[in-house]
Write a structure and sequence with these properties.
seven-stranded mixed beta sheet, mainly beta, globular, UDP N-Acetylglucosamine Acyltransferase, domain 1
Length: 170
């Protein structure tokens, strides 16, 4: 089964209840480059280039998330989600950046792919946007609705647009 069919079947399911979890895991193992055990995923999920997405074990992905891992032949646009990561509803992860450049009088955009990494045990609040090249450190907490434009260090709380660290913790 190709990835488009898997995504269609996955998204045809109601948000995951106990009876759907085994089917969702079965589909996810066939969809992503890597998929650890005990994944909980609540559809719908919008995915571009799932073959460039790696999920650790015990990951939770809430409903309505979008993961855009690039397209074409580039291998630079990858998404790595570490073990025990929790992702809130409506979160979007992007690996493609459109870099403008001028050629004569015409403004063009070049596609620039950079990875997104969510390290172990981080928590991403609902409605967050994570931009290309961002690493969110282990055990970091990102507040709902934040726009993460730069990497966030481990063991901190970060919020806002643009997202900034408001507290470190031990």
């Amino acid at each position: 089964m190709n990835s488009e069919k898997i995504i269609r079947v996955l998204n045809s399911l109601a948000p995951a209840g106990d009876t759907d979890l085994d089917l969702i895991r079965w589909l996810s193992v066939r969809l992503f480059a890597e998929c650890g055990e005990n994944l909980i995923l609540k559809p719908p999920l919008y995915v571009e280039s799932p073959e460039r997405i790696r999920l650790g074990h015990d990951v939770f992905i809430n409903t309505g998330c979008s993961f855009h891992a690039g397209f074409g032949k580039s291998s630079e646009g990858t998404i790595s989600i570490g073990p025990f990561v929790k992702i809130g509803p409506g979160t979007r992860l992007y690996t493609i950046k459109h870099s403008p450049y001028e050629n004569g009088n015409i403004l063009y955009t070049a596609n620039d792919f950079q990875p997104v990494v969510l390290e172990e045990r981080c928590k991403i609040g609902g409605g967050c946007i994570v931009l290309p090249g961002v690493v969110i450190g282990h055990e970091a907490i990102i507040g709902a609705g934040s726009v993460v434009t730069k990497s966030i260090p481990p063991r901190c709380i970060a919020v806002g647009n643009p997202c900034r660290v408001v507290r470190q913790y031990d």
